[in-house]
Amino acid sequence: GSGGPVLAIESSCDETAVAILAPDGTVLAERLLSQLDHLPFGGVVPEIAARAHLWHLPALVEQALDQAALRTSDLAAVAASCGPGLIGGLIVGSSVGKGLALTLGIPFVPVNHIEAHALSARLPGVVDGGAPFPFLLLLVSGGHCQCVAVDGLGRYRRLGGTIDDAAGEAFDKVAKMLGLGWPGGPALEKLASQGDGRRYDLPRPLKGRPGCDFSFSGLKTAVAQKLASLPGVREGGTPTASEAADLAASFQAAVGDAVADRVGRALDMMPDATLLVAAGGVAANGALRRRLTDLAAARGLRFAAPPLRLCTDNAVMVGWAAIEILREARASGRDPDGLDTLPR
Ligand code: KG4
Ligand code: ZN
């Protein structure tokens, strides 16, 4: 049937996730495993990630079906994240998804991971009345940092992006310098909340420059230099608790300032947008959300971000993107079975 539930798989990085959504976007089941195996390595190891996806996916699919009290024969389509991401995990996720769809004789919908983040703002309940096109998407995660004009379904224009590190990468690296755990973003935000963001003068990369590209590597280096110059650290020790908190807060303030400047420029390039959307793991950052809320309000625009658990990688956004894609395919009379052969 065309209007039944969609099972979705996300495996492009280190999260292995499965979700089942009703055609109206209601989440019927959600299973997510973060691969803590990476912890001892201080980052994602692609080979470990791919093996873990393969190991966990079949069980997660079964658990999701149980949770939704559905059988595979109730499914109307299967979707999987098909990139960009780590190739091993993507192959595992799309092979499992495609195999399941083929066995069941239902459409397989390949979903672009960035498109899934973009459309997550249109999930029911995120924006009152549904997020209208066109809107500006700020995608800030561990792997991405870019401004995308979302003009409509399948109509995306990249307005600018990072010329070096992704925003989350910068958070993770600075967190590591400060001796915090991995992933560093949430730990750094927590530490920053106890600190004074004006204590250390750090650069705002590219602020005031034309365009809306981002840069974080100079800021990261500036933090490293500031840290190395602290008296206790120069003597071979660690920063004091207040120095560490103030440095974290100053870094977070610099990121907020730089990102707000860049996003402001992107909004200038998109005068017809009435909504600013942030997605990706770093969009979970409260300080950044407040900056973006203020930026949007000053221009008479709305700001929206998915709930925290849907900012980081998840399968719900993949399922929702598939629902939108299937809906449009049907509306335009295309065969949903041919979706996986269409270049997107
Ligand atoms: O979207 P995501 O789960 O995975 C990627 O596609 O990369 O994003 C993960 C990134 C990590 O770098 C993590 O440190 C960062 O998002 N992050 C945060 C926060 N929560 C997660 N960064 C800053 N503040 C947070 N609260
Ligand atoms: Zn992502």
UniProtKB/TrEMBL annotation:
Keyword set, alphabetical order: Acyltransferase, Cytoplasm, Iron, Metal-binding, Transferase, tRNA processing
EC number of this enzyme: 2.3.1.234
Compartments it resides in: Cytoplasm
UniProt remark on cofactor binding: Binds 1 Fe(2+) ion per subunit.
Catalytic activity: L-threonylcarbamoyladenylate + adenosine(37) in tRNA = N(6)-L-threonylcarbamoyladenosine(37) in tRNA + AMP + H(+)
Domain of life (superkingdom): Bacteria
Broadest EC class assigned to this enzyme: transferase
Residue ranges of every copy of the Gcp-like domain listed in the record: 26-320
Residues binding Fe cation, per UniProt: H113, H117, D313
Residues binding substrate, per UniProt: L139, V140, S141, G142, G143, D172, G185, E189, N285
An example molecular function term from Gene Ontology annotations: tRNA N(6)-L-threonylcarbamoyladenine synthase activity
Chief localisation class: cytoplasm
Cofactor(s) of this protein: Fe(2+)
Protein family membership: Belongs to the KAE1 / TsaD family.
Function of the molecule: Required for the formation of a threonylcarbamoyl group on adenosine at position 37 (t(6)A37) in tRNAs that read codons beginning with adenine. Is involved in the transfer of the threonylcarbamoyl moiety of threonylcarbamoyl-AMP (TC-AMP) to the N6 group of A37, together with TsaE and TsaB. TsaD likely plays a direct catalytic role in this reaction.
Protein name in UniProt: tRNA N6-adenosine threonylcarbamoyltransferase
Organism: Rhizosaccharibacter radicis
